[in-house]
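TOKENISE THE FOLD
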Amino acid sequence: MLTSPFFRRLFIPYLLLTCAAVGAVGLFAATRLRDTYLDRTQRALADNSILIAGLIGPDLRAGRTRELNDQLRRLGQTLHCRISVVREDGVVVADNEADPVSMGNHRTRPEIAAAAAAVTGASIRPSATVGQRLLYFARRIDSQAPGEAPYFIRLAVHLTSLDAHLAVLYRAVAAAALLAMLAAGALCYYFARRQAAPLIELTGVARDLAAGQLHRRMSPPLREKGEIASVATALNTMADSLNDMIRQAAKDNAELLAILSSMSEGVLATDTQQRILLVNSAAAGLLGFAAQQAQGRFLNEVVRSEPVLNATTEVLASRKRKTFQVGPLAGRHVEVTITTFPALCEPDGLVIVAHDATQSVRYQELRKEFVANVSHELRTPLTAIKGFAETLRAGALRDDTLGPRYLATIEKHADQLTNLVNDLLELSRLESHPDLPRRVPVDVASIVRKAVDLLTPAAQKKHHTLATRIDPLPPIPGDADYLERAIANLIDNAVKYTPDGGRIDVAAKLNGTHAIIEVTDTGIGIPEADLPRIFERFYRVDRSRSREMGGTGLGLSIVKHVAQVHRGAVEVSSTPAAGSTFRLLLPLPAELPSAQ
């Protein structure tokens, strides 16, 4: 408690004021006591002087000096005082403590002079005769006989004994004053502590609340009423409200962080100095920095994209929303939207929203490439058809040799166009229905045999050895036409790109949870650089050769989409000039033991 400044400000002034008051009262009491004691002593001397005057009168008038001195000595011992008899002219007639002969004239002594003027006189002064401080009282005795001169009786009390008595009284007063001060100090401590304790507790609770200890409350019940109790109640209410607000803010912040962390869009917030306040992992991934080390740092310390940094400065200056695209950043194209917040008043910062536009950019590029490829694929046969048709119209139709040949060429290109359109329609159906609307059990072994039988004439025309090895396979849910088309495309490619006299092996087997249809040839093979792209639409390793063989460039793309709609996959491995192996993987039904 004594360490509290507020308690000290209450207790110490009260204690000093109380001690000063007690000290002043004690000093006043000691002074009054001394004055009262001196006054009482003086009155006693006055009474004794009258008594002594009556006792020594006969000896004094008879001139019996020795008897007078003896009588004064006896009276002095009885009354414990010094007694002197002085004539009107100041000559000392008798004294019980000193030789009157050796004493000087006392006419000018203050008490004698006062008594001569007003019957009695008193003074406190050092004695020139005995060398000590004395209280003197003198009384003038007027004679009743005519013509007889008056004389003075002077009594003196040694102040040493008087001071000894006063010292006892002073000690008593001092002891009483000390006890009063102690009692006053105890009362001051009690009342100061009573006043300071609630305020000290209030201060401690407020300090703990400011330090984040929101569980602290004022301990009920308060002994104090009125303002202090009102402040304590208000502080407890404020702490409860603050605790609720912080709990709600923490909940909202947790929800916000959960939302931000689950978003695929990147969100980043900064203040007006572009110091990062909030960032999610998606923004860090899209803009190319570590989210854990970004918060609290400046934007230009973590984001290296110059367009983004320039746009943030521009938006802060203009307060206008801006959307633009940057990239590639870490292999991605990013669409960035920057706006100030709040939007309707002085901005407190920026919100940057980043969206991964890579897929959109890729789709746009694929669309452009698709349009260009389709245009190119259509242009070649259409140009040939138009050219031969004009030639026939110019007269070649009547030529028995050129006419049929040109018509056969037109028919060939027309078939190529028909195949291209059919493949495009088939591919469009596969892409528009990523999952089969109706699945039926399909006998994969039968489908493989039908595809082999379909391509056997083409293989025999090129003198290929077409071998099959089909293991027992369970029925697989799917579409028989799609699967036959995919397997036929793989065998057709093997026939086309295998030189005459080559070998083609078609196998159907089980491997764990999948049925595998494998087509292996001894053809020209595929360069390693082209392997990742061979399943793209219109992609050809050798364009001129592919067209010569009547290919549309869509066969392998159809195989990939057929595999995907059956929740499977297609794989390829190839060695240039040695051959290729394509594997169509189809998942088995989950209830089959082989799928477990």
